[in-house]
Amino acid sequence: MKRLLQASTSVLLINLFLGANVFAQKGVIKQVKLINFDLQSSALVKEAGADISSPTYHSAVYWMPVKVPSTVLTGLVANHIYPDPYQGLNNMLIPDASDQFNKEYNLTQYSHLPNNPNPWKKPYWYRTTFKVSEADKGRRFQLIFKGINYRAAVWVNGKQIADSTQMAGMFEEYNLDVSKHIIAGKENALAVEIYPLDYPGYPSKVLLVP
Q1: Number of folded domains that form the chain
Q2: What CA–CA distance (Å, rounded) separates 140 from 74?
Q3: What domain range includes position 75?
Q4: What DSSP designation does 100 have?
Q5: Where residue 123 falls among pLDDT bands split at 50, 70, 90?
Q6: Percentage, residues of the chain above pLDDT 90
Q7: pLDDT in tens, 34-87
Q8: Residue 110 reports pLDDT greater than 90
Q9: CA-based angle 7:13:16, to the nearest 5?
């Protein structure tokens, strides 16, 4: 038995397509792509968004390096937490967002989170830092999200910019004005909390016949 890895399968619904670009506008528009992030589950990270988005934040928990755009699962596979789901029957070694499916196929044993048999129940954090030139002081800054899935909350330098009621939908795009929160000439921090679907469905599957 092999699960069909498609948009409706819950493992792939915890996605972050973060075209998080910083624009400085004053006559000439400059675009900077934020690619290098750190990833960790909120099951392990207990601090709030205001703390995590502080430029001086240091966690007692290891955060995994990822490059966006990336799904949570892609990031975990890249860090050797789970095997490549597209190789053989490896996807049957990865828990699903469906508790029913996990129970039916005993997939809870593969959860990488202690005391969390379903690793996709809680949100995941993406965090990065970036430097803004002193010469850009006074300009307008925007964060452009090319797509999120399914809900997200955003913090910049300790201030919440948007919550999960404002950013919701499959692969929706968002433009956030963060001009008041960017510190020119210093290190800035961005934290994005990604939530899964509210009600994940039962995944599709096919039978492999010899």
Answers
A1: 1
A2: 33
A3: 2-206
A4: H
A5: very high
A6: 57
A7: 889 999 999 999 999 999 999 999 999 999 999 988 889 999 999 999 999 999
A8: yes
A9: 110
Residue 28 CB burial class (10 angstroms; 0-12, 13-18, ≥19): exposed
* Number of Cα atoms under 13 Å in the Cβ half of residue 109: 6
CA atoms within 13 A on the CB side of 70: 24
For residue 12, is pLDDT > 70?
no
Residue 128 CB: number of other CB atoms within 10 A?
Answer: 19
Q: What pTM does this model have?
A: 0.86
Of 170 and 18, the structure prediction assigns the larger pLDDT to 170
Q: Element (H or E) spanning 37, and its range?
A: strand 36-41
Cα 23 to chain centroid, rounded: 21
> Which neighbouring-strand residues pair with 63?
none
3-state helix, strand, coil in the chain (%, to 5): 15, 35, 50
List the CATH number of the domain containing 167: 2.60.120.260
Residue 55 CA, distance from chain mean position? 19
User: Token pair of 188, please?
Assistant: 């800035």
